[in-house]
Amino acid sequence: MEKLIAGTTVTVNEEGYLTNFAQWNEAVGEALAAEANVVLTPRHWQVINYLQLQHKSNLPLSIRQIGKSNVVDIKEFYQLFPNGPLKISTKIAGIPKPASCL
Amino acid sequence: MKHLLILGAGTAGTMMANHLRHNLKEDDWEISIIDEKEEHHYQPGYLFLPFDIYQPEDIVKSIAEFIPKGVSLIKNKIERIIPAENKVAMKTGEMLEYDVLIIATGAKIAPEETTGMQGAEWQKSVFDFYTFEGSLALRNKLREWQGGKLVIHITEMPIKCPVAPLEFAFLADSYFKHKHMRDKVDITFVTPLSGAFTKPKATAALDHLLQEKNIHIVSDFAIEQVDNDNKKIIDYGGQEVPFDLLVTVPTNKGDALMERSGLGDDLNYVPTNKATLQSKDYENIFVLGDASNVPASKAGSVAHFEAEILTENILLYIGGQPLKAEFDGHANCFIETGNGKALLIDFNYTHEPVEGTFPFPGVGPLRLLKESRMNHMGKLAFRWIYWNVLLKGTHIPFVSANMQEAGKHF
Ligand SMILES: Cc1cc2nc3c(=O)[nH]c(=O)nc-3n(C[C@H](O)[C@H](O)[C@H](O)COP(=O)(O)OP(=O)(O)OC[C@H]3O[C@@H](n4cnc5c(N)ncnc54)[C@H](O)[C@@H]3O)c2cc1C
């Protein structure tokens, strides 16, 4: 479905995740963060850039793997994006919600 | 004479030994299988042991009983795989050479990954039911437990049989009802996922059942530590859940052998092509069952479907032909819901579990994603099928290795 956010029309899935990363920009990221009640600081942006880089390289994302990334430890990741940091941060970053393996 | 070597004589390795001995000429191919244990455990039985539904003798048999004639069974611990030399080193120092290697070493729990999990309360008020020892110790605890806060907890995904912790919660509800003490037990299900399960339609059905059985759910909980002194689990966000009895599913990992061999990912699972089951790094190494990193359920039923497809692929590989990219992630799991009922789910990489009928479209007799007694009979029959059909590599009539779309309400 389509959604107008920060003056840009983007396509999102039922859960509100962008389906096309090309439609993402920093203003969209800011607006998505506001929807999730997160105020973005430079630390947030470092994590978001890291997530986007991983996604571009087709590398899987998990809390465990982010904890080992040297970008942020799990404790801080939770402080930055409280209550489900992985699903919130990936939404703001404009990348798919990581599939938790079955 | 060529040599095909199978690592691990659990569910998947045993099935491959049976399939391949049947399909490869004894004059051309020697087949060996290595395991460090002598006993084969029916792991789905670990779910029933704590509730006195199964006894230990129902779920333990000897490995040798299921290895066919013409396959040599070697009892030893595998120390290292040396893929560049096509060799496997054993704990006792011997080396085995192979032409084709099948990795089927499974997955096991790693409670040491979580701070405090194996602390002072381990097997006193903190238990697992993913090992025989844990499950038996929990049975003894439950027999005398007077009630309080029961917390059922998943540490992180992926885990073997991802529905087993939910089934444990449902069976606990029914167990305490039968003991006339349900009112003394407060049951909470704590999960790192956002709901009861990973797939939306099944989550909706299961969330509903949890509610109906008065089981509380705490979701998005990523555990940081078990606090043994204050008997609570604490997550990275600071959230706390107190317990009197904690039944946890620790992190699951592949065998440490993969780390020693430089063959695993960060959880010691072997990177594997999800459609052909060939290892991503070595063309004469194949992987099936819980040991691989394919994004399918870690379940015996999955290993069964994989074994049918992998047998074909190994024959193609040996014949110098291209492999078939056939495995679709097919899984088929019964979910015990307590009080003599169960649900059935059937799904693959791309299709989530939905309602419908199984295995005959429109007929059943099993119903998908709906509680029924028939499904429960199916779950109990699974143990017989496991020992008598599955391990022997016999095809289950009417159930295909690839998922059927007919009869399902997508
Ligand atoms: C509580 C519970 C409930 C379950 N319920 C279900 C269910 O209802 N339905 C279902 O389909 N599945 C269920 N499963 C999952 C199922 O049991 C597994 O998916 C299946 O057994 C995997 O088979 P495998 O051959 O890959 O591994 P395993 O059967 O675990 O075999 C691995 C073998 O490798 C050997 N090994 C490993 N490392 C070494 C080494 N270094 N040296 C020598 N030997 C080694 C081990 O000793 C073992 O025998 C359940 C599992 C659990 C724990």
From TrEMBL, chain A:
GO terms classed as biological process: tRNA wobble position uridine thiolation
Locations listed in the record: Cytoplasm
Keyword DNA damage: no
Keyword Cytoplasm: yes
Family that this chain belongs to: Belongs to the DsrC/TusE family.
GO molecular function: sulfur carrier activity
Signal peptide: none
Transmembrane segments: none
Organismal lineage: Bacteria, Pseudomonadati, Bacteroidota, Chitinophagia, Chitinophagales
Designated name of the protein: TusE/DsrC/DsvC family sulfur relay protein
From TrEMBL, chain B:
A Pfam family hit: Pyr_redox_2
Highest taxon above the source species: Bacteria
Taxonomic classification: Bacteria, Pseudomonadati, Bacteroidota, Chitinophagia, Chitinophagales
Domain FAD/NAD(P)-binding: start-end pairs: 3-141
Organism: Limnovirga soli
GO MF term list: oxidoreductase activity
Protein name per Swiss-Prot or TrEMBL: NAD(P)/FAD-dependent oxidoreductase
